[in-house]
Amino acid sequence: MKKLLFIFFIGISFTFTACDKSDDNVKLIDESDLNITDVASVVDTEVAIANVMTEADYESDMFSLEESTTKSGGYAYRLKNLAELYKRWRCYKDDFGPEVTVEDGDNDGFPKTITIDYGDGVTLRNGRVISGIVTIVVSAPPRTDGAMREIEYTNFMVDSIGIAGYKKVVFSGESGVSRKFEHEYDLNFTFADETEVSCVGNKTKEWMEGLDTSYDRADDKIHITGQDVFVDSEDNEFKKEIEDHLLRLGACKFIVSGVVIYSQNGDEFARVDFGDGTCDDKAVKTTADGEEEITLGKHRHGKKK
Fold first, then answer.
1. Mean per-residue pLDDT for 206-216?
2. Do residues 199 and 177 lie in contact, with contact meaning Cβ atoms separated by under 8 Å?
3. Is residue 59 situated within a structural domain?
């Protein structure tokens, strides 16, 4: 079984050191000059991970924000909760969503434990299939600054990629006005070809539009910012930087615009351009060998030494 170990460090603010981003004719370092076994495999794997985690994050954000605002108990609440769930299930094909249970704590209902069980598979309206269990412990009402969620994934899959491990999410903003999530995580990914990837890190996501329509994700516009430092199982180290921001639209299961830069020791060796805002599963990867259109979410084996 091939195993890659990636350590991710994604910050809110950062300095680009790989190259002058205003220069459209940046020289990309050839793979032979890098301590990386296979540049194409490294980039494709990271893109696939970012793609499925965007969907997983969206699901946990949606359920924990709504479920944590009302203390359970009483017939009136149960009716309201079922109505909310039915509205939320518009996100799922045939209105068939996951089974959701809520357990209250002793401090005015907190910490609140939310269990989302997708069973053997639930299909989203955008075509993604999610299975397994997500457990979320919410420390306080989430629409207040500093509210924290601790998320655990068990036998969880998005399409063919398995996700296991732990994540902490801290909310900042004001209900209906602003929404930002800062993520820290320790996760393991398993691909269909048995490649395994471990990641530790953090990132920031901010809602720019769609705050006034809680149950309709179609009008959501989300900016994702940050940078990563990777270390693989052979102690190769390289950096990933997001240029400006990545754009996620609620009605599309893929990142639709933004550029990601990959570098090692300050030398850029690859970049991925997600497009002009059009919803599709394509991006353009550029290396020293030239440009190549790639399919988002697709993963391939790296080549052996």
1. 79
2. no
3. yes
* Residues 10, 202 contacting (CB under 8 angstroms): yes
Is the CB of residue 263 less than 8 Å from the CB of residue 241?
yes
Query: Which residues lie across from 249 on neighbouring strands?
Result: 221
Angle at 116 between CA 114 and CA 119, to 5 degrees: 155
Tell the residue number behind the tokens 């301590």, with chain if given: 35
Q: What is residue 17's predicted lDDT score, i.e. its pLDDT? A: 34
CB 133 within 8 A of CB 156: yes
Which pLDDT belongs to residue 245? 93
Query: Residue 166 falls within a domain, yes or no?
Result: yes
Bridge-based pairing of strands 161-174 and 178-190 is antiparallel
Residue pLDDT, tens place only, 109-150: 899 999 999 999 999 888 899 999 999 999 988 677 899 999
| Number of domains comprising the chain | 1
- Domain assignment of residue 275, yes or no: no
* CA distance linking residue 181 with residue 194, whole number of Å: 31
Q: Is residue 258 part of a domain?
A: no
The average confidence (pLDDT) of the chain is 79
pTM: 0.71
Q: Which domain holds residue 112?
A: 3-26+53-242
